[in-house]
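ugh ok fine here u go
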Amino acid sequence: MRYFYNLFMNKYPAIFLLITMFFPGCSGPGEQNGKTVFRYNEAANITTLDPAFARDQAIIWATNQLFNGLVQLNDNLEIMPCIAHSWEIGDSGTSYIFHLRNDVFFHDNPAFLNSTGRKVTANDFVFSLNRILDLAVASPGAWIFNWIKYENGKPAFTTLDDSTLIIKLNRPFPPFLSLLTMQYCSVVPKEALDFYKSDFRRHPVGTGPFQFKMWQEGVKLVLLKNQRYFETREGKHLPYLDAVSITFVADKQSAFLEFIKGNTDFLSGLDPAYKDELLTPDGTLQKKYSGKLHLITQNYLNTEYLGFVLNQGGPAAQKKLVRNRSVRKAINIAFDRGKMIQYLRNNIGTPGLQGITPKGLPSFDSTAIFNAYDPDHAKILLAEAGYPDGKGLDPIVLTSTADYLDICKYIQHQVQKIGINLRIEISPPAAVKEMKAMANLPFYRASWIADYPDAENYLSMFYSRNFCPKGPNYTHFSNPEFDQLYEQSLSTLNDSIRFSLYRKMDRIIMEEVPVVILYYDQVLRFTQLDIEGLGINPMNLLTLKYVTKNHLNHHRQEK
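structure:
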């Protein structure tokens, strides 16, 4: 029987996958005989399984199961050992020495002699990290090595021996270890790149807790347990699951219904299509799902905001208005963020009353309130700007995508009460992204999701040397005092002193108002009752190696 199954799978994988999609009960050997399979849907699809291109959440989630790096984050965003069991930082923060485990093996693959994965060495990291900087590869993650020192024209990635890697920076950068937790820094074998060449994107070979089995693009991706995985927990080898199955149903309502029927194990986030079906206005599970689903939530390192471009593109009238700080301040305090979160987001999220640094980072200052709702003072600010009760004030255009139309309309209604005529223009996400990157949108809605867990990630958006399109300063904000504090923070290794500098920078931003903070987001995860150990973290990173699935409990519910 196994022979005929393998023969069918090899010759007709697409037919098999379609059968498993439309007839979930016929799911194949992976879910028989007590095998545990974690199933989730990825509406955003996946374009590659090469970690060098892991720039969005869908790819990061998949590659996080397949690959490892030197270090990793736990759910508290603490940097933990991974393939490197220990490290030292020397030379005033410019030298990093990593000591590697000697029991880490690449997945078995035809790229290796006898198809048996070999042991990982320090030279594999030299190859992998150099690959990120290779212009021919064109990895979007090359920026993470902006601080790398070059010796004899080459990046300073060197080895002492097979288990010792040295990385040198040209100047201190305290968040550097956090950067190394990103999927871009995963170790990959040269043999597999030589063997698959450009097709490595769909034939990934890593060291992770799961290894690649099959991928029908746009239909289904299957990962199997790595039997030689090196990590353990409480004396037991990880991972606990036997497989991971990912479908790619683009319609979120359909994906939601599959989850409710029990055909998937996990649902992430809150879409307007099913927001009120799942949650009460207070943000708790609706009564009919209580006892049937798990809901876990956590602060999310995602700040939602409105941005003003302080120079460059846009019509002359718009430039004049958005460059007027009093007008920006008036908008900033003319709407009630608490009610916005309550009525439009079912209390999911925290009103953006502090600064650009989101709740969940250690430098977040909950005592600093900058944006309290104060329509009376907003009217005074408009008068100071020369527009009493909005008289003589041209309409201000706010550009957004359709997903945030309800929030934009709420702000439009609120600011109208103080005399501001706000017009909303809806554009496709790609168009908004392109125009924002060229500073051609005078006033726009945006969000910033952390690439790594340090406030520098957010504050770099306002450093004057980072003007877009070369950097992330989309507002073209420039302030000498801010720049001085930012540069000082980069050479400050003491966390408490650096966090104090971060807070001073945040205060400058809130006083100058290049952005209007809307809210700090939350991670929401819904699971079936038989799923345990999923965990949750402010980076919204999906880690499946600790997950268990209790089939007995699952079958009991179905009966």
